[in-house]
Amino acid sequence: SGGTAAADGQMGQIMKTYYDWQLSGDDAWLRKYWPAIKKSIEFCWVPGGWDADRDGVMEGVQHNTYDVEFFGPNPMCGIYYLGGLRAAEEMARAVSDTASANEYRRLFEAGSKWIDANLFNGEYYFQKIRGVAKDKIAKDLLSTMGSSDTEKPDFQVGDGCLVDQLVGQYVAEFAGLGNLVAEENIRKTLHSIYKYNYKRSLQDHTSVMRIFALNDESALVICDYGKGTRPRIPFPYYAEVMTGFEYSAAILMVNHGMVTEGLECIANIRRRYDGERRNPWDEAECGHHYARAMAAWSGILALSGFRYNGSKQELEISPKWTTAGALKSFWSTGTGWGTFELSRSRLKLNVIEGQLTCRSLKVHGATKSFPGGVEIVPAKPLTVSV
Question: How much is the pTM?
Fold first, then answer.
């Protein structure tokens, strides 16, 4: 109580909490906050809420980052929910709350199957708009900017191809939670975003709201209706361009084999913010220096493939991009930061601040021995399982 609950934001914070625990390995911290985390995921089930019937699908009224509510099942909030359930499951198991973990798993599996079966049109995921009487909506789910008619709501996505329909998948991958929906559908959706949302020129593109890119510039637009029917009054920002949304979609492309396309989309952003056209340190959205643009950082994580599980003290390095089989990159965890150099025969980990405690190491998903050895500078605990 005390404000409008955002479906995407709340599920994202649950995954972020899981990710913070993974980076730090602080089990006592997780146990301390578990009761609040549990309440946060189970808020989804309140009468008249997001998933009141507890079937793993958000059918209810879902306030979200577009400053309106989506009515009915949709991929953005729905897949975020799947990620929240997976994160909650893993945290529940870690604190020995087995009954809750099993329930979260049941809902995740049911919801994932339902979304793949009912919201995927062969190219991407879409929204099924379902109005609801206002007196059937739980408290704190409606904002003041959404549709005045909740039974026949305006400001919806409908059949559109949404640039961040897989944003829950994006967060889940960096948290190490795996696929939330079918891998084949993820790949097809990313190809569709590149096909429909990518505008190589904006000279003939009209945005009825704000203009963050224009003329000969290239960008991924928020939502495209080239394949589907546009609602009479779609959600307000559908024709806009915002870098944070572009980064997350582009980096998902990198993660799923579309490295060239993903880097192309990122390069387009850097051209628009090149210091001449716009300030490279101020990627505006709803104001200057908007936080969503910090999604750019995940490009380093994707391309370097550096993943650390502090709870299990496991390190995996699976780069998506190298030069002649070699890579040098920055790394950071909850306990330290530094650089690493990887080649076919040698791995060097440079710990500049803090520490990196590892009990197992995988490279490209498999344990590996290096003819040239594994070196940590300065020396830190490291045991390589080969």
Answer: 0.93
